[in-house]
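Researcher: We plan to redesign the surface later, but first we want a full-length starting point. Tokens attached.
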């Protein structure tokens, strides 16, 4: 009897130990603690707050992007741009063999710095014209500059090879070709020129402004008046340059304009629901903008729409977050809905310390591209909106 009890007690202990052994290679069993349900992606559309989207203009002026826009024909509707360049005075004498000496000009090289072009346009060339010394650079207008472009003021063409995408482009002038470039006392030693562009079809280019690495250039190769002559070079750089435009579109107050010169930016405000701000996991967020007119721009040289979020909403001077940037290239003449993925921006709006749910739109390079977009707003056209795809938080069971 005692042997049977000992055997029975040992069996119970073995079963107890077997039931309590640790399973190191198997997943845990926690039905009371695991989330219930099946993950479900929810789609929701959020429109901009009515009357709280707006355009502000004047962030960047002509030449601030170290680029001059030069165009001929219609890269954008009814748009033609002419560059104006004034060089520093070329000295009347140079130091040679220990003395100041006059010189004879043997040849001249004129050049422009090509930043970008429409590669589909062939036989591209810059037309260079001499501008009078009476030119008032403080009151330039397109009509005033255009009136000075004539057969009599024409200097030369600077041909651009079809294979050239960027870089310095120049022409060398010799003998009789340099006669129109003689600088007299009335000029004060300054050469003033206008630059237009033509090709097999209407087009536009971006050329280097005076502060860029490839500005417009003016080099004179001269022979000093000395017993032993030795050719030398005189190079002067631009002291002023800009461009004039036949048209200057003015932003429509009821629409959202991005780009142009002076540059415009737009702010779009959203009221983020609490369910999205506090407890949702945003899988994807897509900003949808509908153009109110075809996007202006230069084919094969598109600008980029940049979308940022604010660190604080102060209107036109609001600081933007430097952490995240969303962008989208805007092809010329596009009319379809522009979609920009902004999931990373929207996630910055979430939580108790989230940033303001406001987006800023701007063009890149600002004041340095032909691209300009006009989108619908909450007041006119199609309202901007964000298409969300998100997961709700799992409802955890209580143990």
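Model: Full-length starting sequence:
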């Amino acid at each position: 009897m005692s042997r049977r009890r000992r055997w029975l007690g040992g069996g119970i202990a073995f079963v107890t130990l077997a039931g309590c052994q640790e399973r190191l290679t198997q997943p845990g069993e926690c039905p009371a603690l695991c989330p219930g349900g099946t993950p479900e992606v929810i789609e929701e559309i959020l429109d901009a707050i009515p009357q709280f989207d707006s355009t502000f203009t004047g962030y960047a002026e002509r030449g601030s992007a170290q680029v001059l826009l030069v165009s001929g024909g219609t890269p954008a509707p009814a748009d033609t741009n002419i560059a104006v360049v004034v060089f520093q005075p070329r000295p009347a004498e140079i130091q040679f063999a220990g003395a100041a000496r006059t010189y004879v000009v043997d040849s001249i090289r004129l050049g422009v710095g090509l930043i970008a072009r429409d590669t589909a346009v062939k036989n591209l060339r810059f037309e260079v014209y001499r501008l009078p010394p009476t030119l008032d650079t403080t009151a330039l207008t397109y009509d005033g500059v255009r009136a000075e472009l004539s057969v009599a003021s024409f200097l030369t063409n600077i041909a651009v090879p079809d294979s050239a995408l960027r870089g310095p482009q120049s022409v060398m002038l010799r003998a009789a070709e340099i006669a129109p470039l003689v600088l007299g006392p009335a000029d004060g030693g300054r050469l003033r020129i206008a630059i237009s562009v033509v090709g097999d079809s209407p087009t536009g280019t971006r050329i280097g402004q005076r502060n860029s690495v490839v500005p417009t250039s003016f080099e004179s190769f001269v022979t000093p008046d000395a017993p032993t002559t030795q050719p030398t070079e005189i190079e002067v750089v631009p002291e002023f340059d800009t461009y004039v435009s036949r048209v200057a579109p003015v932003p429509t107050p009821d629409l959202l304009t991005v780009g142009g010169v002076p540059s415009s930016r737009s702010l779009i405000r959203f009221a983020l629901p609490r369910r999205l701000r506090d407890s949702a996991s945003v899988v994807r967020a897509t900003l949808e903008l509908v153009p109110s007119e075809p996007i202006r721009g230069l084919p094969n040289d598109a600008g980029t729409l940049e979308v940022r979020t604010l660190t604080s909403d102060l209107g036109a001077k609001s600081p933007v977050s430097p952490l995240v940037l969303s962008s989208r290239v805007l092809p010329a003449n596009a009319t379809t809905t522009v979609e920009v993925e902004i999931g990373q921006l929207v996630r910055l709006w979430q939580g108790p310390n989230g940033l303001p749910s406001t987006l800023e739109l701007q063009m890149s390079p600002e004041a340095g591209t032909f691209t300009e977009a006009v989108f619908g707003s909450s007041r006119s056209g199609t309202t901007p909106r964000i298409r969300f795809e998100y997961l709700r938080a799992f409802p955890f069971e209580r143990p």
